[in-house]
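User: Some background: our group keeps a shared notebook of sequences we're curious about, and every so often someone picks one and asks for a predicted structure to add to the entry. Today it's my turn. The entry only has the sequence so far, pasted here. Could you supply the structure so I can complete it?
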Amino acid sequence: MENYKPPFAITNEILSYVSSISEKIGRITATGNLESKLYLRKNNRIRSIHSSLKIEANSLSLGQVRDVINGKTVLGEQKEIQEVKNAYAAYEKFFEINPYSIQDLKKFHGIMTKYVVKESGDFRRGEEGVFNGDRCIFMAPPARFVSQLMEDLFDWMKEAQDSIHPLILSSVFHYEFVFIHPFSDGNGRMARLWHTAILSKWKSVFEYIPIESRIEKFQDEYYDAIAKCHVDGASTFFIEFMLSQIDKILDDVSVQISEDNEQLSECVKRLLDAMEYNIPYTSKALMEKLGLKSKEGFLRNYLRPATYMNLIRMTIPDKPNSRNQRYIKV
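Assistant: Of course. Here's the predicted structure to add to the notebook entry:
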């Protein structure tokens, strides 16, 4: 099908959300500096993985997901543990994604479903339905049409990326992807990953914003929005729903950053202000820059809190007391 255009309308509500989200992203970027907060980034990534898998009926708790990612032993179903490892591997390679490449889509589906899906990295060859729990929302298009439908969708995205706002384009893609249901399994995970990938090409901070946690919290409404669009024959309602959730998660992230900034003691702030990025310092050099004489006070009030919060890292983490130890601002 030539020049395929997914059916949707741009409503006043959509435009209002685009304006609100853009404003909030601007404030987060200007004042929050989320990308420099390693511990918040990791926590949000773990939340994204846990929520996206929970939507797909993975029963591991947030703590268990965190333990799997941190390499700890977790008692649980092996398939669910592997799903966490796969998702983390995919998100760790997030920066490599070209969201306008079908080849990348298949590659990351292969990463996301390694060892747990038979047709990993390939479009489905059988017929599939979309389910919310035990309830079938609709039957997906026949498998013989999948390749062409995906080609049409990606061709439209490439053509529309310069004329349609990424917030709208990513939501349209998300709905169309779910409708086509191109893989035998893992479609929801891939739709949410790709949605974030498209937004991250617009504003890189989206890589660390756990949109999935809002979808998981309002899972029934998410599936209801998809079902309504099937009836309407257009993705307009789903765009409105997704933008409303993104708008709200940005409020949560703003609060998170504000609370985190307040938790930084004046000592830690002084230490960070004294350090340049990517330059290794000895503890003696840092004490001299801060005008401190008590090493115990420096360790207790400055160095240990900053290290614990992952604001600085050791060059020799396995030997924290090494005489060759250096500290780098991250």
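Suggested note for the entry: DSSP finds 14 helices and four strands in the chain. The chain has a mean pLDDT of 91.
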